[in-house]
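User: New here, please read:
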Amino acid sequence: MHPVLFEIGSFPLGTYGLLLAIAFFAGTALAKRQARRDGLAPAAITDLAIAMLISAILGSKLLMVIVDLFSGVPAREVFSFATLRAGGAIHGGIIAATAVFFWKLRKGQGLPLRITGDALVPGVALGQAIGRLGCFSAGCCYGTESHLPWAATFRDPIAHLFSGTPMGLPLHPVQIYNTLANLAVMAVLLLARPKRTFQGQIFALYFLVEGLGRVVTETWRGDVDRGTGWLHWAWLSTGRLTGIAFMLLGLGLWLVWSRRQGLSQETK
């Protein structure tokens, strides 16, 4: 679509970068709003969100590099300027941000882990939804060929240069599918939050529905070289593998934390 929004002199303003910034501020604002309802300090949420953002950027690029290397992409292409400009693999960012979340709260940030997680994840889903619009603008994470009325055709050579996006070919706008899926995840989390029966339930639910959504939307992904060759025969890709891992993590957290809640009620 439009990888470069406009140029100021010789400096290009990338659409993806701008939307990523909007995603961060929108997601953080929603997380702070949810946090206030549980009596959490908004300033502490902001500090935590900044740390998670930095780790998410690094984690998404690291996973992209790992996948590319295992896929046989030449090292000179992996460690290039194009890699720095690419958005990365979003689940790598989520994994890194989740690790930092647990690490910082274990260090003692004045925030209870499970309630804080419940407050954060609707904002994470919102940020992902907006970020996927950046993917659509940049042409990365493109879909398979499609002749449906809503198919998208990319014509900007910058998209092909940095993401290998096919030019002039109608494709499934899978980035938009992911945006809609992430908005649905956010809606599910917000609707479930007033009805939660144990602390951390919304946090666990996020991984369940986010993972499921990714497994489904991978059906229309066209950048098939994102998984190692020995996995393709098994219907698996990096996105599906991490999606399944997310569902298992969500299920595990749900079972452990709900059991703890039940035990604590029995001892009262």
